[in-house]
């Protein structure tokens, strides 16, 4: 393919940066698709395997300089294997619906000879609806493909995004999938088997739950150490022995109650629904890595704690938890299905209903446009339209109530 690309450039007497694209058949034959007269988003792969800075070369040529003599003699040899992933603010579960909003927390792996990060945003920036929602390009290099796959898995484990939904968990499922690791993937595979790559529906994971609870306890104890008051320590000391501390962890629709006894990394944990206690010893946090022993089993897990949110990576799956209050107000879920909300910021294109209209569950009530896509918003249930709170042409914010059912 490389030789064919060079031949195409010579045939055109082409003298600029360009990207030649081919498509490969199941039989291994490749066919020319197009020549893009520019560098494309995948150019770091070429740079890392050839040891070139294509952007610098392009700028030097534009400034009137010639290519280095070594390049004029031929293409340098390719060395090693590189993989590029794109971190996006999008929701893979919702057909990769683009997201937007403030990056409340953004942590990416450190750059090195093996890891390259290309990003135009930092923590605190806003992913806008007016541009591509890419957060960063994550590129790794190593001597061969298996090692590069191991590198990309390590790098993804160090990626944390809070704010808009991201595709980080999807990418972890992707690079762990046998079809990808064995090189059996094709351009139609995701369309045929997308469910194989989507993050699993959150299920109870005892190890992840214990890790989340321990992380919360360690953070609470660390926060209390700076206070000299004898009432500040949160080890629950009592004259009759340490009292139980109560934690509530919310995971999607599931609320987990955890009772903890102990402090400073040694705990006895009781989780509702499980008869046996979990005995934790020697737990400690080093940045985003939690080391501990659970029932004499040594564990080392990637965790992240920000505000009331906790994320634990275990067995290739990211488990998200929220520290919930002990008491919650009466649920508003009874009225939740009465509202049709904007899934993201955008402009209303068409309103297809009116106050008083009888609608069936799933009927399209309005169409909005965002990030060059049209989104059809449907009735969550059968009912009567009680209010229409928008009109065609309106710009609406994410989560705005547009229509209410009675």
Automatic annotation (TrEMBL):
InterPro entries: ATP-grasp, Biotin_carboxylase_complex, Biotin_carboxylation_dom, Biotin_COase_C, Biotin_lipoyl, CPAse_ATP-bd, MCC_alpha_BT, Rudment_hybrid_motif. Residues 329-406 form the Lipoyl-binding domain. GO terms for molecular function: ATP binding; ligase activity; metal ion binding. The keyword Ligase applies. Residues 5-63 form the ATP-grasp domain. Keywords: ATP-binding, Biotin, Ligase, Nucleotide-binding. Residues 1-195 form the Biotin carboxylation domain. Pfam families: Biotin_carb_C, Biotin_lipoyl, BT_MCC_alpha, CPSase_L_D2. The keyword Nucleotide-binding applies. This is 3-methylcrotonoyl-CoA carboxylase, subunit alpha. It comes from mine drainage metagenome.
């Amino acid at each position: 393919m490389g030789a064919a690309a060079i031949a195409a450039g010579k045939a055109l007497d082409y003298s600029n940066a360009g990207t030649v694209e081919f498509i490969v058949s199941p039989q291994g034959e490749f066919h020319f698709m197009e020549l893009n007269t520019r560098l494309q988003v995948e150019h770091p792969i070429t740079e890392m395997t050839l040891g070139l800075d294509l952007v610098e070369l392009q700028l030097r040529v534009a400034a009137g300089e010639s290519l280095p003599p070594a390049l004029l003699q031929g293409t340098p040899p390719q060395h090693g294997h590189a993989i590029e992933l794109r971190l996006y603010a999008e929701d893979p579960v919702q057909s990769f619906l683009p997201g937007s909003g403030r990056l409340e927390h953004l942590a990416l792996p450190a750059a090195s000879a093996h890891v390259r990060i290309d990003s135009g945003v930092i923590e605190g920036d806003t992913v806008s609806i007016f541009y591509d929602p890419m957060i960063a390009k994550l590129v790794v290099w190593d001597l061969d493909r298996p090692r590069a796959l191991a590198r990309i898995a390590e790098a993804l484990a160090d990626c944390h995004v809070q704010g808009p939904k991201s595709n980080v968990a999807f990418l972890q499922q992707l690079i762990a999938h046998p079809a990808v690791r064995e090189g059996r993937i094709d351009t139609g595979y995701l369309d045929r088997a997308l469910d194989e790559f989507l993050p699993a529906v959150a299920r109870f994971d005892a190890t992840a739950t214990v890790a989340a609870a321990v992380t919360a306890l360690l953070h609470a104890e660390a926060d209390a150490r700076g206070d000299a008051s004898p009432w500040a320590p949160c080890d629950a000391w009592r004259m009759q022995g340490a009292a139980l501390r109560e934690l509530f962890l919310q995971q999607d629709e599931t609320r987990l109650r955890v009772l903890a006894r102990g402090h400073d990394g040694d705990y006895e944990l009781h989780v509702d629904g499980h008869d046996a206690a979990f005995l934790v010893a020697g737990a400690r946090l080093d940045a985003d890595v939690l080391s501990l022993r659970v029932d004499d089993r040594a564990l080392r897990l990637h965790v992240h704690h920000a505000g009331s949110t906790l994320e634990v990576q275990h067995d290739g799956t990211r488990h998200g938890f929220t520290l919930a209050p002990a008491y919650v107000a009466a649920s508003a879920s009874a009225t939740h299905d009465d509202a049709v909300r904007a899934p993201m910021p955008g402009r209303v294109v068409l309103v297809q209903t009116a106050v008083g209209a009888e609608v069936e569950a799933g009927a399209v009530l309005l169409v909005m446009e965002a990030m060059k896509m049209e989104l059809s918003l449907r009735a969550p249930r059968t009912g009567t339209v009680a209010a229409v709170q928008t009109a065609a042409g309106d710009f609406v914010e994410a989560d705005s109530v547009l229509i209410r059912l009675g």
